[in-house]
Specification:
Mean pLDDT: 95
Number of strands: 0
Radius of gyration: 15 Å
Number of domains: 1
Structural class: mainly alpha
Low-confidence stretches: none
CATH topology: Substrate Binding Domain Of Dnak, Chain:A, Domain 2
Strand content: under 5%
Helix content: over 70%
Shape: elongated
Order of helices and strands: HHHHH
Length: 132
Amino acid sequence: MRTTDMLETYPGTISIDRELLARAIDSLVACSQTCTACADACLAEDSVADLRDCISSDLVCAEICATTASVLSRSTGFNAEVAGALLHACIEACRACGDECEEHAHHHDHCRICAEACRECERACSELLASL
């Protein structure tokens, strides 16, 4: 993946396990995209009023994941406390969004796919956080 390639080109020292970091960044980007697409798909459903909480959760998770991926992509001046706080927030946002999407997964495939992406991102962020 390009994330791993980019991390390998960094001329300085990266104090985090590069494999865990790349996996987390890739999961964060994928989760952000999936949550955004899920929110959009929810808006196209006939039962959109029943999906308000799902849409809101999707959009919050998408933003937190995108921000976390962006910050983790910067190694210069890395601050483990800030990274840890973002990872905690991301884990919680992914857990909440995954739970909400799972409630609708039996009716909407986009919610099932989103819940899966959230769970994967939650795992990847938890692993990275444990390594800090």
